[in-house]
Structure formats: C-alpha cells, structure tokens
Amino acid sequence: MIEILNPTELPRAREAGALVADILQTLKSRSAVGTNLQDIDRWAETMIVEAGAVSCYVDYEPSFGRGPFGHYICTSVNDAVLHGLPYDYTLADGDLLSLDLAVSKGGVVADSAISFIVGDSKPPESVAMISATERALYAGIAAAGPGARVGDISHAIGSTLSEAGYPISTEFGGHGVGSTMHQDPHVSNTGRPGRGYRLRPGLLLALEPWVMADTAELITDADGWTLRSATGCRTAHSEHTIAITSDGAEILTLPKQAHS
Ligand code: MG
Ligand code: MG
Asked: Is the pTM of this model over 0.85?
C-alpha cells in the first residue's frame, strides 16, 4: 500500500521527524568511549516516552527477524550494519557506530539513521565509508521530487556508492513511510532512472544507503536480528525521511543545527 498524506498531515510528519533527529543527535553526543549500547537503548526509551511518541521497534516482528525486536533503537557497531540489537557492549575508541531510530508521533512515522566514529581516532576508511553513504543519501534526495520516479532515486544512490568503490546489496533499502514504518514503494539502493513508481506530493519516503567495505554478503548474528558483513569488514548506514512536496523534497529528520 502507498499512503499519500494530505497537506494538513504534513505538520505532524515534521514533528515526528524533528523528534527522531533530536533523539539521534542527543544519543550521538552521549555515545563516548565507555558508553554501553544498553545505556543508549534506555536513553532512547526515555526520550521517546517523554515525547509522547511510540517506538516502531519494540513490538516489531517481521519475517526476517527473530521478533519481537524488544528494544527502542538499533545499535550496529563496526561489522554490524543493520538491525543491530543493543547488547552488553562497551564502546571503544575508533568504533564505527550506526544508530537507527523510528518512532510514531501523532500517527505519523519518521525513520532515520546516522553513522559516526566514537572517540578521538578517526580511521580514514571509516570516515570515507560514512561520507559515501551520506553523499549517496543526499544524491537520492536531490533526485526526488514530484514527477520523478523511484528509479531516479535508486540510480542516484547506487551510482554514488559505486563511484566510491563499494559493492551494493539489494537485500534491504528505502521504503515508503506513513502510519506504519515500512510501506510501499520499496526504494532499492541501485536501479535504473525513469523506472518505477512516480512520486507525488504527500508521499513520505525513507531513503537509506548502507555499505560494507568489501562485500555485499550479509550474515545474521545468533541473536536473530543483527546483520553483519560476511567478511567482518566495517560498514556504514545513513537514512533520512523525506516528504515529497509540490516543489521538491523536504528532509523531515534534519538535525536542528543543520536547519539554520
Ligand atoms: Mg531506519
Ligand atoms: Mg528505514
């Protein structure tokens, strides 16, 4: 199903997006050497509940996971790339941490992910990988707008990742967002321009390029959720929820400081 928001619902989508962005930035600022992933999960829970929002993850039980997920945020470290189940792990200097958060507020979902390096050391290959997913995300957003097609976004994301030298997996990608977290259309991280669903004002999309340094093959942890690179290489993931408007695409999950 593809949901199209009416213009009176857009403010609620903005509110959900601002909340997700705010929580992610707060969690990023608290994620230091010595921070435990379970603390990040508890902080996320507190902020979601205090904001009167509802977690999209706690009861989430899709076919690909061993559900319900039972946590408030995905914490994926180093070779873990998607659906990282928070566990008793203490962050170390140079760890590459991806945080992925989706909540529903006022009946509308927003979904966003950020990747960053913990501590002072900045391994160049990690910096490059994070930068590639961010560039791909913004290339995808630039290709989105009324009249554009899903394939235009997929092509923009995929060609940016390929030019940066990363293999691309088509196993997981972006998706429509609305009253629930995962809706049609699927937005693959590679594709052909001019193909697929034609975008319309009121459509919300989560775009989410993710890469692994030297493989496109995923393995699933014994926890039934966490997806890791098959080779143990590092990984990165960036995601924004956008709204298609009459004159382009509006990023709903942009951090506050980036607005000014
Ligand atoms: Mg997400
Ligand atoms: Mg998503």
From this structure: yes
